[in-house]
C-alpha cells in the first residue's frame, strides 16, 4: 500500500513539474502570409510584344520578405522573422501581366527580376524597390537586340512587412509599366523588329 502511495505521489509530482515547464515555454507566434491581393484584368500591365520569359534571380526566389538597412549596411540582407510571402515573388509579378501581345511579332521580351526589397534609408523611412532586367530579342535569329535595367520605387507607409508588401506591390506595377514602354519604343525603332513585321 505504501509503495502504491509513493508511486502515485511521484507521478503527481512529475505531472506538476511538466505542467510548470510547459507554462514557461515562450509562445510561438503564427507566421503572417502576404501576397498582392486579387488581381483584376483591368489592372494588369499590357505589353506590345510577347513576353518570352519571366524569371527571377535565385536570391529572391523564396518566401522570405526581404529588407535592407541602407543607413547601416547596404549590402546586408534581412528577412522578417514572422512574415512570409504566400507565393514566390516571381509568381506575384507574373499575375500582373496581361496576355494581349500579338503572336506574330518579330521581337520578344525577356524579363528578369533582380531586386525585390524593402529598403530603409533611415529607421523611420523605407521604400519598396523593384529592379527588372529587360531584354529585347530577335525571335528569328535569337540575337539580343537591346537590354536595359528598369528600376521603380514606392514609399512604404510603415516600417514593417505590411508596409513593405504594399510598397512592393506598387513598385512592381510601375517597373512593369516602364519595361512595357521601353520595349514598345525600342522595338519600334529597331530594324530587327521591323523587318519581319512588314
Summarize the structure in words.
The structure is a single chain. The chain has 198 residues and is an alpha/beta fold. It has a single domain (33-195), classed as 3-Layer(aba) Sandwich (Rossmann fold), CATH 3.40.50. 31% of the residues lie in helices and 35% in strands. The chain contains four helices and nine strands, in the order αβββββαββββαα. It has helices at residues 2-23, 89-94, 161-189, 191-195; strands at 32-34, 45-46, 51-56, 64-69, 77-85, 97-98, 107-122, 125-138, 144-155. Strands 1, 3, 4, 5, 7, 8 and 9 form a seven-stranded mixed beta sheet that branches. It has a two-stranded parallel sheet with strand order 2-6. It is elongated, with a radius of gyration of 26 Å. The chain starts with a helix and ends with a helix.
Which CATH first-tier class would you pick?
A: Alpha Beta
CATH architecture: 3-Layer(aba) Sandwich
Number of separate strands: 9
Which outline best applies?
elongated
* Ends apart, CA distance between termini: 103 Å
> What structural category arises from helix and sheet content?
alpha/beta
Under CATH, the topology can be stated as: Rossmann fold
Radius of gyration: 26 Å
The proportion of residues forming helix, as a percent range, comes to: 25-40%
Q: Total number of helical segments?
A: 4
Q: Regions with pLDDT < 50 over 5+ consecutive residues?
A: 19-23
Quote the average pLDDT: 87
CATH superfamily: ABC-type transport auxiliary lipoprotein component
Order of helices and strands: HEEEEEHEEEEHH
Strand content: 35-45%
Biggest pleated-sheet summary: 7 strands, mixed
Domain module count: 1
Amino acid at each position: 500500500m505504501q509503495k502504491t502511495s509513493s508511486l502515485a505521489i511521484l507521478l503527481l509530482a512529475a505531472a506538476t513539474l511538466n505542467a510548470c515547464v510547459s507554462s514557461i515555454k515562450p509562445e510561438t507566434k503564427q507566421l503572417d502570409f502576404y501576397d498582392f491581393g486579387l488581381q483584376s484584368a483591368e489592372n494588369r500591365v499590357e505589353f506590345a510584344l510577347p513576353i518570352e520569359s519571366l524569371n527571377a534571380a535565385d536570391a529572391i526566389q523564396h518566401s522570405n520578405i526581404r529588407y535592407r538597412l541602407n543607413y547601416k549596411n547596404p549590402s546586408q540582407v534581412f528577412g522578417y522573422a514572422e512574415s512570409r510571402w504566400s507565393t514566390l515573388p516571381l509568381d506575384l509579378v507574373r499575375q500582373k501581366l496581361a496576355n494581349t501581345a500579338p503572336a506574330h511579332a518579330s521581337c520578344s521580351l525577356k524579363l528578369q527580376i533582380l531586386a525585390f526589397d524593402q529598403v530603409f534609408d533611415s529607421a523611420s523611412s523605407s521604400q519598396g524597390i523593384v529592379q527588372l532586367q529587360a531584354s529585347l530579342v530577335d525571335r528569328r535569329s535569337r540575337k539580343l537586340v537591346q537590354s536595359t535595367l528598369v528600376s521603380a520605387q514606392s514609399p512604404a507607409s510603415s516600417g514593417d512587412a505590411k508596409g513593405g508588401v504594399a510598397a512592393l506591390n506598387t513598385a512592381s506595377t510601375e517597373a512593369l509599366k516602364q519595361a512595357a514602354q521601353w520595349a514598345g519604343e525600342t522595338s519600334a525603332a529597331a530594324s530587327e523588329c521591323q523587318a519581319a513585321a512588314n
